[in-house]
Amino acid sequence: MRPAAAAVGQPLDAVDTPALVIELDAFERNLRTLADSVKGRPVRVRAHAKTHKCPEIGKRQVVMGAVGVCCQKVSEAEAMVEGGIGDVLVSNEVVGAPKIERLAALARRARVGVCVDHPDNVAALAASGATLDVYIELEVGMGRCGVPSGEPVLALARGIASHRNLRFAGLQAYHGRAQHIRSTADRRAAIEGAARAVRVTEELLNKHGIECPIVTGAGSGTYMLEVENGAWNEIQPGSYIFMDVDYGRNEWAAPLPRFEQSLFVLTTVMSTPAPSRAIVDAGLKASSIDSGMPTVWQRDGYNYAKASDEHGLVEIGASAKAPRLGEKLLLVPGHCDPTVNLYDWYVCVRDGVVEHVWPITARGALL
Amino acid sequence: MRPAAAAVGQPLDAVDTPALVIELDAFERNLRTLADSVKGRPVRVRAHAKTHKCPEIGKRQVVMGAVGVCCQKVSEAEAMVEGGIGDVLVSNEVVGAPKIERLAALARRARVGVCVDHPDNVAALAASGATLDVYIELEVGMGRCGVPSGEPVLALARGIASHRNLRFAGLQAYHGRAQHIRSTADRRAAIEGAARAVRVTEELLNKHGIECPIVTGAGSGTYMLEVENGAWNEIQPGSYIFMDVDYGRNEWAAPLPRFEQSLFVLTTVMSTPAPSRAIVDAGLKASSIDSGMPTVWQRDGYNYAKASDEHGLVEIGASAKAPRLGEKLLLVPGHCDPTVNLYDWYVCVRDGVVEHVWPITARGALL
């Protein structure tokens, strides 16, 4: 692990770049906004740790009422448990002997859930001997993993129930694509489609005497639509703590609250080849461009137009003041999750001063 | 740092996924092919370590004749020196007090070069007191850092020469964009344009009594064009050791030799939702998609069509045999450099058995 990216007490402007910065006031308001938005609703929060990969943040989510976290990888779940989180769902299929062994070892130290969509995988999990909450992943519009509603779910649920160490915990029904549909009305339509698949499946299970304790899913871009719909009783928001350029392009309207941008990449102007162009030291190894370029925070007329591996090209509009060599800028990452995965530390800032440095202990946790 | 991604002696098929794999035979042939291609030419090799970020590889490049390595970041250069490389060029501008301090400290332990394109930066380097080889970055078609040929170069060279601790080492003339132009003829035209800028600049410097010892530049996609042109006496190839999908799309014709694909992402089929579709456990956090999707190695009819954070969607053609759950596939990364930056270890394989695990010590070296 690399040394801490800043020193507590340092002014932000003295922090070397590129650095991944959390504005603590905005971050903490986001934590509270989510908690307030579901207060009194029959739903529990299982925050998604794939976004932050940091137990320091996971613990704060639990303190704000989350039942635990979810992860996409076993090695992420290990990092969360090692950091003090006692209840982790791997909201994904875990396939292959080495990973299932690790999952089983983890389940001796914490409450662990996992998703399945194949009977062979159920058999492999059962053979591990681990006590696991097993969720069936339902295909609800992602076109990715999961089984369609109907008979396949019934067969899997019976398979799970036939093993003493596995507990059928419910359905994983996550519509990831819906998170990034721009209009609230279209997002609502997508979630209603997912909800129909959930209800049909629950009815089938109930008809055959199988109880479905939890229906889990719902990301930051839609979760209040799932809550209002009522088919879910657990939500998995992740990005709400940080936000990014892509989420910023969504329409944010009731019932969804507005979250604030709290995650930034601090960068330095390292070359000023022309008044209309500045080169910054944060390229695509410092801010993931899979969902588009970062933007420059609170600088009218500045356009981060192009990223190469270690450089970013910022176009300076004719009416904007060009930056000086060495000047620092804040970028808003195009996509928060893969950007976080490029860093070892968060530099947490309040009123322009570093208050915490938090290690991103699940950075690079691919297994 | 994460634990080693495999055990020496393990069969490749037992390695947990996603894993970053080097096929050692192909890798070693690439090292030799490059060395052979410049044998007897009046040019030295300074291999680019931004690609591999691994001293184990840098040392092998030096053993094969490289004078040292180049890096894009001071922290990368530190990792190389710590790993046993004695001559490092930061082929980039180094701006800001903390980085210049680190560069100065490094220059007390190794021969260190750096690029400049601004007089204020020359002054800051001089003030550090460090003994540095200083190269002027010439703008030769990248539209990024660098000064145009002519007076600005002369002023910078004089500025450098005015400081006792700085040595004017020559010109950095790297045409990165040319590396990815598909046809050899078009790449040659781009390099000839860059060469004209180099020659005009050298003539100007010589006319004013300033010697220009080294002209450095030239990446894997063009370097023999620079060598044949004659305006360069140092080349900086990086990707030739690994190759990737994007480089594979170039025309490879004389004078450039053909390099082999040696870098792969090992991935597991984690879901088989339909005969026409498989989901693998390597998404965009396991293989960078900035230059396009990875491809599936030696599987006709398999098309890696879409990456999400932790999943890849592989379309299976109608005439291809669908993979079974748990089957492993090798992916060719779309772009090698940022893919390497996602991993902590290379799993180095010969004849299907792990022979080395090499730590990627400059992974995440952003400063």
Describe what this molecule looks like in 3D.
The structure is a homodimer of 367-residue chains. In chain A, strands 1, 10, 11, 12, 13, 14, 15, 16 and 17 form a nine-stranded mixed beta sheet that branches. In chain A, strands 2-3-4-5-6-7-8-9 form an eight-stranded parallel beta barrel, surrounded by six helices. The first copy, chain A, is globular. Chain A folds into two domains: 12-19 and 260-359, Lyase, Ornithine Decarboxylase, Chain A, domain 1 (Beta Barrel), CATH 2.40.37.20; 38-241, Alanine racemase (TIM Barrel, Alpha-Beta Barrel). In chain A, helix 3 links the parallel strand 3 and strand 4 (87-93). Helices cover 28% and strands 25% of the residues of chain A. The first copy, chain A, is built from ten helices and 17 strands. The first copy, chain A, starts with 18 loop residues before the first strand and ends in an 8-residue tail after the last strand. Chain A is an alpha/beta fold and 367 residues long. In chain A, helix 3 packs parallel to helix 4. At the A-B interface, strand 10 of A face strand 10 of B.
Which oligomeric state applies?
homodimer
Shape of chain A: globular
What fraction, in percent, of the residue positions of chain A are helical? 25-40%
Please identify the top-level CATH class of the largest domain in chain A: Alpha Beta
Low-pLDDT residue spans of chain A: none
Which range does the strand content of chain A fall in?
Answer: 25-35%
CATH homologous superfamily designation of the largest domain in chain A: Alanine racemase
- Give the CA-CA distance, first to last residue of chain A: 17 Å
Structural domain count of chain A: 2
Overall pLDDT score of chain A:
97
Task: Describe the sheet with the most strands of chain A.
Answer: 9 strands, mixed
Radius of gyration of chain A, rounded?
22 Å
Name the structural class of chain A. Answer: alpha/beta
CATH topology of the largest domain in chain A: TIM Barrel
CATH architecture of the largest domain in chain A: Alpha-Beta Barrel
Largest interface: chains, residues each:
A-B, 62 and 63 residues
